[in-house]
Each structure stands twice: as structure tokens, then as C-alpha cells.
Amino acid sequence: MMGTKLIEPGKHFLTGNVAVAEAALLAGCRFYAGYPITPSSDLMHHIAARMVEVGGVFIQAEDEIAAINMILGASAAGLKAMTATSGPGFSLMEEGLDLGFMLELPAVIVNVQRVGPSTGIPTLGSQGDVMQAIWGSHGDRASVVYAPSNPQECFSFTIEAFNAAETLRMPVFILSDEFVAHSYGKVVVPDHSEIRIVERRRLDESSIGKALPFKVDDTVPPFAEPGKGFRFHYTGLMHDDRGYPVIDKEVTRKLLSRLMRKIEKHRNALVQYTVLDEDFAGSTMVVVYGSIYSIARTAYRRDREFRRRVAVFRPHVLWPMPDRELRSLVKELGIDKVIVVEMNMGQYMYMVRSALLDLGVRVEQLNLTPGFYPSPNELKEMVSKVMERG
Known about the structure:
The chain folds into three domains: 10-194, Thiamin diphosphate (ThDP)-binding fold, Pyr/PP domains (Rossmann fold); 207-270, no CATH class; 273-387, Rossmann fold, CATH 3.40.50.920. The protein has 14 helices and 14 strands. It has helices at 16-27, 41-53, 64-76, 87-92, 94-103, 130-135, 151-168, 178-182, 249-270, 291-302, 304-309, 323-333, 348-355, 376-387; strands at 10-15, 29-34, 57-60, 80-85, 107-113, 145-146, 171-177, 184-189, 273-276, 284-288, 310-315, 317-319, 337-342, 362-367. Strand 2, helix 2 and strand 3 form a beta-alpha-beta unit.
């Protein structure tokens, strides 16, 4: 199936974790550092063997802190790099992640979510790391967060995540979970020539001695490749256009504003969502994402009466949030109640409520017990009960 190089075009039967690994290699990832943690370990096991076949480098780090710093180092050397972990490891990586945002180093971080907090239930999935992925920073940063719902999306979203990371020069997150990661499914790989692969924009060698590596006319500076003769400085401190630390009000505002504008400027290209409203004749919308979307879609497809009663809105990318599109659809369909279904005690619901705050729409939450997935019929009954509330 795989041969000795990149995954071949055609139909494959893969788990979500393997689909992520194969897509990463196809996207050009040639460095992986990670530490085993359930339920992401099999992704690391797979890519450990495959990375050698494509001429890349795999390192099992001593812990997650080392792993995140290793992939930042590889990215600083010009390689496309990735790691994968779960909730506890993601927490350990937070300081390194913020360094990646400040140094503007592309990288992809996969968080295969499990039940938390703390050790929780390592073998069962959850959606408990949403706020951490979007907001988990000591200071201001803006992130890109993908949420695949099946192995096919694990494949395609991983390629998109690498493209976004290279375009924006920043770490990008994929929020999978145990259900998605270990589910088998059909993955269709297009002809490689049809897959859009983005490469990092780099400073031309003709600008050696002239270019300031963090001075930009746009929002994303070109990358100064080490070993080419460029003179630059990397620091996690606030820095000027040369990369050197400064304590200055205007420099601080300029740098932070530019880092935030990366998402604002590219928002429309990043935002993706799905709407199910083919037979809709009601006034209730269900917002759902990731693995729970697969269950909700099955319930929706099986029951025409349920389709008439609810419309379904599903963001592919949790952040930047498709808030404008959600608001527009709520007004267009005459929605008066929105039910946010997620496998946590309430996280994305607060973002939905904020987006719709001035529309007079009632936003309800349906919090599924982390780790315990409902059947499609059970989910339909749960949604129906929330709809019946006064």
C-alpha cells in the first residue's frame, strides 16, 4: 500500500492516526519528535518507521517539553516538522508553543484528546482541550485549530494544517480524539499533482546583508534560512525588526498587532464549515464538531423528521471561528434556539454564545460525558429533550 516512499494515490483503509502520519509525509514533513502517550502513540509508531523511508528524521524525545523544542529547532533549520500528543503532553508543551509563536516558526501539533483533567481516562476520547488550544497562552497570540471528524478529514486537514503553518509561519493545531484517531475508514488520496502543498517563503540570497528578518511590509516575514549568510537573532523576548530584544512601547504594540493580524488577514481562507439543512422547516440549530459530528450526521441522515426539526452547523476549523457565517445562517433560517453539543462540560458553547449575543437567540448546551459516546439514536433523543425545554 505505502511502498517505500509516499502513500500512493487511490483508496486506502486507514485509522485516523495513520491518516495523519501519511498526510504529514505527503505534505513534506521530514522531522518528527515526540513522546509516547495514549491515544496518540500509534501515530508516532507509524511515522517512526515511515520517516526513514522518505529520508526524514524521527526522534523519540525524553518528554513532551523536549519534543516541542526539538520540532521548533528543526523548523528554525528550515524543515517541516510535527509532533503528536494528548492532553497532559499538550499542557507540558505550552511554554514551547508560545516560543514558536514568538519566533514565527511553522510546526504542526496534533492533540489526540482524551478524558481529563490530569490522567483522566487515557483510553477514552474527549473534547476537553478546545479552550486550551485556542486560548492556552501566557500573553496574546492567535491560533489555527482544525477538528477532523473521520480518517478522511484527518488526512486532508493535516495537509491543510501544514499549508497554514508554512503560510503564516506559526504553530498550527489539529484537535483529534481517541474516537477519530482509532476509527478505521476509507481515505481517498488524490493524484499527488492535484494536492496543493505550500512551501515556506524564504529570503532571497541577494538580500544578504540588507534584509531585516522580522521587518515586513505584509503580516508574515520571509524566512531567513540558516547557513545562507543571513545575520539574525532568535529570542522569545519582545524584539525589533532585526530580532534583537528591546523594551519599547511602539515595538511591542507593532509586533503583537502583527502576530494577531496573521489570523485576521487570512481568516476567510482558513474558515471552513458544513451546514446540514436540506429538509429543515423548524427553528432550532445544532452546533457540533469533531467526532461528535459523525454521530450527529448519522442521526440526521437516518431520520427525516429529525432533519425537519433541526439544522446542523459544523465548523471544520474551530479557530478562527466562523462566527460571521454562523450569525448569517441563524438570521437566514429564522433560528431562535441553538444547541451546542460537545463532549466536555462546556467550552465551544461560550464562543457560540458570544457570537450570537446580540441576536436574541437562546443558546443551550448539551454536554456529553467525556469518554462515553452516545449512539446516533441516543444523541437524537438528547437533542430532542433540550429542544423541549421552555
